[in-house]
Amino acid sequence: EIKRLDAGSWFDPKFKDEKIPTFDEAVALVKGKAGLFPELKTPEVYAGRAVDFEKLVATALDKHGLRGPNADPKTPVILQTFNEGTARKLAAINIGVPVVLLLNNGAKFGTADSVRAWKGIVSGFGPAKAVLLGNPELVKWAHAEGMTVVPYTFRQSAIGRGYASAREEMEHFLYTLGVDGLFTDNPDQFPRK
Prior knowledge:
Blueprint: H1 8-11, H2 23-30, H3 53-63, E1 79-81, H4 84-92, E2 99-103, H5 112-116, E3 124-127, H6 129-134, H7 137-144, E4 148-149, H8 166-177
């Protein structure tokens, strides 16, 4: 089904008919050249079915030598998910790669204790920009626990209020709030120091 999707048109008409790669195709393209930060989309769809979603993820990583003591060091993997249950299951099966819990605009991470409760389960958080703007202390709390913060998604077509450009907005998050990285649709505007 995903191969029939015209995802390119969503970004710009010039990308019409661009296809989304499968996980195997993405690994084949980047293995040995870059890392992977895939999102585990809607694992709750498999609830009540005879599908062990987390085991499928482990099997896919194993197939490509991307976890465990013999994992390809040139292709680091970080998994990300909005699903708290999946994050806990991945920790329980010792998935062997970092897992980031994504936080949408309704996420309730208002105390250091709420962050600390995830230590040992996830390696960090991926909050929506608005989550951090509403509670910039999240960065400090996560860092105090040795966890990362990588917000999403910075794009020129959706600049936050008060910023002249996506570059300026990313600069604020990176160098004022102190996030560890970020997701952007405009890597050409990434503010390097």
